Amino acid sequence: MATCVLVPGAWLGGWVWEDTARALRERGHTALPLTLTGLAERADQGGPETDLDTHIADVTGFVERNDLRDVTLVAHSYAAAPVTGAAGRLGDRLERVIYVDSAPFAVGMRMLDLMPPQAADQLHHEVLASGDGWRLPMPAFEVLSRSGSLDGLGDGPRDALRARATPQPFGTYTQRLAGPAEPGPGVDRVLVACRDFMGLVDAGEPMLAFLNQPPWRRFDLPTGHWPMLSAPDELAGILDAALS
C-alpha cells in the first residue's frame, strides 16, 4: 500500500483532505494531510517572509523528518508549485507525484504567471488594502468561480471553505520557482483532471500537451475544482487506482 502526503491548495489546510484521507486509509493506504506554513492551524507561523521556498521546505522537511520512503506527493491547485519544487529535491524517497486539477511548474514560473496582468495587479491591491501587505484573503465565491469550477460544492462545503480558509502568504504567489524541479526518471507521474483541467487539456493547450503523453497517466473526475470537498470518495477511488 502507498504512503501519500496530501498537500492542499491556496487558503486551505490539511483539514480539507479529511474525508479523502479517511477513504484512502479504508483502502489500506497511509494518508498524511499536510498544512503549509501560514495557513489553517499554522497561520500564526507565517509572516511577510513566508514564500514559495518556505512551502517547498515544508514538504521536503515533512518527508525527511518522518523518514518516509516510496512516498507519493498529491498536489491540489496552488500546491503544484511547492510539490514541483519538493519533487526535484527528494531524490529516491519519491515514488510518485499526483497533480489534482493542476500541473507541474517550470523553473522560473510563479503563481501570478497563471493569470492576466490585470488580475495579478488586483491581487496586489487586495494584499495592500486588506492583507497587511503580505496576506491574500480568500476571494468571494463569485470571483473564485472565474478561475475554478464550483460544481458539486453545496452549502455545507462552501460554508466550510469560507469559515476555515485563511489568508494566503502572498510571497508564495510572487516568488518564482527555482530549480531543481524535475523528479527522477523513474518517478510515476499522474494527472487527476477535474472539469477545469479536462477542458484545458482536451482543447490542446500547448503548455499542457505533455500531460497527455508518456510517462504521464491521466484520470478524469467530472466535478469542480475542489474534489476533496465535492467528491471526496470518488477522488479517493481515483487516487487508489493511480496508486496501484
Please render the helix and strand layout as text.
Elements lengths: L2 E5 L10 H9 L3 E4 L18 H14 L5 E6 L3 H8 L6 E7 L16 H14 L4 E2 L4 H4 L10 H10 L3 E2 L1 H4 L13 E6 L1 H8 L13 E5 L6 H4 L1 H12 L1
Parallel strand pairs: 1-2, 1-3, 3-4, 4-7, 7-8
Antiparallel strand pairs: 5-6
Helix pairs in contact: 1-10, 2-3
Description of the structure:
The chain contains 10 helices and 8 strands. The mean pLDDT is 96. It is an alpha/beta fold and 244 residues long. Strand 1, helix 1 (18-26) and strand 2 form a beta-alpha-beta unit. It is 36% helix and 15% strand. The strands form 2 sheets. It has a 6-stranded parallel sheet, sandwiched between helices. A two-stranded antiparallel ribbon has the order 5-6. It is globular, with a radius of gyration of 17 Å. The longest helix has 14 residues, at 52-65.
> Percent of residues in helical segments?
25-40%
Shape: globular
Helix count from the secondary structure assignment? 10
Distance between the termini: 8 Å
Report the sheet with the most strands, covering strand number, pairing sense and barrel closure: 6 strands, parallel
The radius of gyration is: 17 Å
- SSE class: alpha/beta
Task: Strand order, main sheet: write it out.
Answer: 2-1-3-4-7-8
User: How confident overall, as mean pLDDT?
Assistant: 96
- The succession of helices and strands, N to C, reads EHEHEHEHEHHEHEHEHH
How many strand segments? 8
Q: Spans with pLDDT under 50 lasting ≥5 residues?
A: none
Question: How much beta, percentage-wise?
Answer: 15-25%
